[in-house]
Specification:
- The protein folds into 2 domains: about 140 residues, Roll (Diaminopimelate Epimerase, Chain A, domain 1), CATH 3.10.310; about 150 residues, Roll (Diaminopimelate Epimerase, Chain A, domain 1).
- With about 300 residues, it is α+β, with helices and mostly antiparallel strands.
- Helix content is about 20%, strand content about 40%.
- The protein has an 8-stranded mixed beta barrel.
- α3 packs across α5.
- β12 and β13 form a beta hairpin.
- It has 6 helices and 17 strands.
């Protein structure tokens, strides 16, 4: 059976930048093992599979796979799938409103479609969970994971911290943009330090002007040496920073640049609501550009 797929570059308005995603549009009937095999075949950081929703108000069920495992939530597959699905439906003459709701492993994910001159060009999602903080780890192990020295890690705002808004990451602030540029994953340190904590990725960042981050994500244990744009990790990092700094009640806007050091620049826009010192909602937005489409012949 032929199955349609579309690829898109996410968190960018230009092809061949941002983070690529493969979206299999008619995944009904595929077994989990087949989805995992296809994700390995595409070998993107994630591949999304669109299935009929189980019940209203969901628009569709979306399953997301890395080359190694299924994950309950991820930002760039959610944004990319929303844009691909909306454009595909409108091209077929199907009515598309301004909102989608995806059923994902972490729960229902509300999505607002972003339009320009009437066309869907991006999407904004509400993270399925509030900020959850887990263990903080030592500066030494965090630096080792990034092939850096402990002096390159900044711990004045927070220690290296596991945080999640649907998918957990080790969040590490660095002292300088130059340190971020030098960072690269140390596979031995990842194997030693991350699986015991139940995670497989490190998100390193440095803050520029207020509200602007430069970031990189490394997940070699998950088959992704470096990720060009990581919406779920960006949501967790900006939620953490919003909770720790600023006013007790506010909405903070963040602009996050990722993928620059690997030649695939991306821009992720995040709004974080904080009430009485606690983050209450994280909204992650960006554009997406369709690059390829075709058919799967072997599934």
């Amino acid at each position: 059976m032929k199955r349609r797929f579309v690829t898109a570059d996410v968190f960018t308005s230009s092809a061949f930048s941002g983070n690529p995603i493969a979206v299999v549009l008619d995944a009904q009937g595929l077994a989990t093992e087949q989805m995992q095999a296809l994700a390995r075949e595409f070998n993107y950081s994630e591949t999304a599979f669109v299935l009929p929703a189980a019940k209203p108000p969901a628009t569709a069920r979306v399953r997301i796979f890395t080359p190694r495992i299924e994950v309950p939530f991820a930002g760039h597959p959610t944004v990319g799938t929303a844009v691909v699905l909306a454009q595909d439906w409108e091209a077929a003459g199907r009515s598309v409103g301004e909102q989608f709701v995806f059923e994902e492993g972490a729960g229902l994910v509300p999505i607002r479609l972003l339009r320009e001159h009437g066309a869907v060009v991006g999407a904004e999602l509400a993270a399925p969970e509030r900020l959850r903080l887990r263990e903080a780890i030592g500066v030494g192990p965090a630096a080792a994971c990034l092939s850096l020295e402990p002096k390159d890690v900044c711990s004045s705002t927070h220690a290296p911290q596991i945080a999640s808004v649907g998918l957990p990451f080790l969040i590490v602030e660095l002292e300088s943009r130059e340190a971020l540029r030098r960072a690269k994953p140390n596979l031995d340190a990842h194997y030693k330090n991350l699986p015991p904590l139940g995670i497989d990725a490190v998100y390193a960042y440095v803050e520029g002007p207020p509200g602007v981050l430069h970031a990189r994500t490394f997940a070699p244990l998950d088959g992704c040496i470096e990720d060009a744009a990581t919406g779920s990790a960006t949501g967790a990092a900006t939620a953490l920073l919003t909770q720790l700094t600023g006013k007790p009640t506010e909405t903070r806007l963040w602009r996050v640049h990722q993928g620059v050091d690997m030649g695939r620049p991306s821009l992720i826009i995040v709004e974080v609501d904080k009430r009485d010192g606690i983050t209450t909602e994280v909204r992650i937005a960006g554009r997406a550009t369709i690059v390829m489409e075709g058919f799967l012949l072997a599934a």
